[in-house]
Write a structure and sequence with these properties.
This protein is an alpha/beta fold and 329 residues long. The protein has nine helices and 15 strands. The chain is globular and about 75 Å long. One of its GO terms (molecular function) is inositol 2-dehydrogenase (NAD+) activity.
């Protein structure tokens, strides 16, 4: 596709309003139609009429679509767009179950359509710089990936628990950063806030390449934290995706003569480097990657097949928590 692409957006809630702003600011995109059966509570439609459903969006004559409706509606909306032959990016997760995610991915694949999933953390400058340095071998062999994603409950979420809303980011980024799918996962969840869905999860897993992983995710912490730590033979990278900062803690080469400290530390502490990296809004880069995929370069999008694979791990997290058993993938 060349020239300005006519983009339709369905879902004008907390995420949809940001997508509307970014689509309008993306070179080569023109936001020509918006839809939300619940109306436009954030006032983002501007001069555009607020259409009632995905079928009206399709009838507006769009080249591509962005889906930002609640997770429980992802499948039906995405399948309608696939049936109409509209390339689409769906906000994460791709659907509300692994089975539904596979149906969506297959619908777009079978029709040869561009299909993407909005895992915006992959566009975070800290994680992009981390992946580049890991690919360059700067950490040597990777041993462990640890993530912490904590904060207060977001009022925007009502249809899923913390696993499908937040932990899905960590599952996706861990497999991407480490370059390996999950082999097994074990998890525990809690329901502490009186809601139907879980609000805390701790999960431990093993990737197919032998890297061990740990995820701590919740909605009940009175401060916000978004941290990914990758430990390997040469030290550890710490990516803070709230600030977009990447720090490297090197294993030291200077031996300690203080025996108690040396024994306690194990490896010696070395230099600490906080990298100066360019920082752009991740959502803007995500939309540019989708635009480039529509123009023939899909190398930087999160594919729907990847989105479905992440949901398989998410379902395994919930199954493990329910059964008390480790789940193999």
């Amino acid at each position: 596709m060349s020239g300005n692409l006519r983009v339709g957006l369905i879902g004008l809630g907390s995420m949809g309003r940001h997508h509307a702003r970014v689509i309008r600011a993306t070179e080569g995109f023109e936001l020509v139609a918006v839809a939300d059966p619940g109306g436009d509570r954030f006032g983002v439609a501007g001069h555009l009429p607020v259409l009632g459903d995905v079928h009206a969006l399709i009838e507006a004559g769009i080249d591509a679509a962005m889906v930002a409706v609640p997770t429980v509606y992802h499948e039906q909306v995405a399948l309608a767009l696939a049936e109409a032959g509209v390339p689409t990016m769906v906000e994460k997760p791709i659907a509300d179950s692994a089975e539904a995610g596979r149906r969506v991915a297959e619908a777009f694949s079978d029709r040869g359509l561009v299909g993407a999933v909005g895992y915006v953390e992959r566009c975070n400058p800290a994680l992009r710089a981390l992946r580049e340095r890991l690919d360059a071998g700067e950490l040597g062999q990777v041993y462990q990936v640890l993530t912490r994603r904590q904060g207060p409950f977001p009022a925007r979420i009502s249809d899923v628990g913390v696993v499908k809303d937040l932990a899905t980011h960590d599952i996706d980024l861990t497999a991407w950063v480490a370059g390996s799918p999950y082999r097994s996962i074990s998890a525990q969840v809690t329901h502490r806030s009186g809601r139907d869905n879980e609000d805390m999860v701790v999960a431990t897993g093993l990737l197919a390449n032998g890297v061990i992983v740990n995820h701590t995710v919740n909605w009940l912490t009175p401060f916000k934290e978004r941290v990914t730590i990758v430990t390997g033979e040469k030290g550890a990278f710490v990516a803070d995706t709230l600030t977009g900062d990447l720090t490297f803690h090197a294993n030291g080469t200077v031996a300690s003569t203080w025996d108690q400290i040396a024994n306690f530390r194990g490896v010696t502490e070395g230099d600490v480097i906080r990298y100066a990296i360019p920082k752009r809004e991740p959502l803007a880069l995500e939309q540019e990657n989708f635009r480039d995929a529509l123009r023939g370069d899909p190398s930087r999008i999160v594919t729907m097949a990847e989105g479905a694979a992440t949901l398989e791990v998410i379902d395994a997290v919930l199954a493990s928590a329910a059964s008390g058993q480790t789940v193999s993938l």
